[in-house]
Amino acid sequence: MNRTDRLYAMVEELRACAPRRLAARELAARYEVSVRTIERDISALQQAGVPIFADVGRGGGYTLDKSRTLPPLNFTPAEAVAVAITLSRAGGSPYSRAARTALHKIVAAMSADDGASARELAARIRFLAPAGNDDPASVPAVLEEAVLARRVVRLTYVDRAGTETERDVEPVTFTASGKGWYLTAWCRMRGGCRVFRTDRVRRAALLEETAPDRSSEAMHSDIPADYVVRPLEFV
Asked: Which of 147-161 are b and which e, b meaning 16 or more Cβ less than 10 Å from the residue's Cβ?
């Protein structure tokens, strides 16, 4: 059994046995590998976002939180690759790191054969980009958390003239345009709504204070007449 098949089988076995724990030596005997190999496999799955928990000591072992995992999915290889193409364009956007872990979970939850077919098809997809054109800088994780948790955040920001300022803002929405991603927020320094380009945020610190609930519609009241704001939809 190759490593990909073994990882998939381990996830399914832990899901089937949950909440009972399986010791590393049990898994090692079942898959005819060393205990050290099992420990490395478990670590790789945890880093990919699979909610596997470990207890050490006598009677310890590994268990999986069934409520936070997906059963085998009926994604076709082409559907999985279509999702991967979409997520590959998420670089520089909010939650781009979450997009990568989501893709790992989708592929891990597919059957072994479909997962292998998806990887083989993905290997035949190419993206053309100018040489030396690095991926866009990722949105700081603290901004993602600020919007998610509605927390006030302290920004060090550089405007288009190159002037650096520090200010406390109340985050409301992320907004995307053809030029990049923006954080729309209530700026306490200016006493009004401001839009910050995320690639101009030099530093960000999450504060303990919960931000007031502000209407996202009111924050977009000054958009150009030839533009519309569309919310993200799941369907």
From this structure: beeebbbbbebeeee
pTM of the model: 0.62
CA distance 136 to 198: 11
Residue ranges of E strands in 4-138? 52-55, 61-64
Residue 168 CA to residue 150 CA, distance in Å, equals 13
Q: Which of 52, 56, 42, 57 is nearest to 17 (CA)?
A: 52
For 87-136, what is each residue's pLDDT tens digit? 877 767 888 877 877 787 787 778 778 888 998 999 999 887 666 655 55
Q: What is the CA radius of gyration of the chain?
A: 22
Q: How is 123-154 classified by DSSP, letter by letter?
A: TT------TT-PPPPPPPHHHHHHHHHTEEEE
d(CA 194, CA 86): 29
Specify the pairing of strand 164-177 against strand 61-64: unpaired
* Rounded Cα–Cα distance for residues 29 and 10 (Å): 12
Question: Kind and range of the H or E element at 80?
Answer: helix 77-88
Query: Per residue in 141-190, pLDDT tens?
Result: 899 999 999 999 999 999 999 999 999 999 999 988 878 889 999 999 99
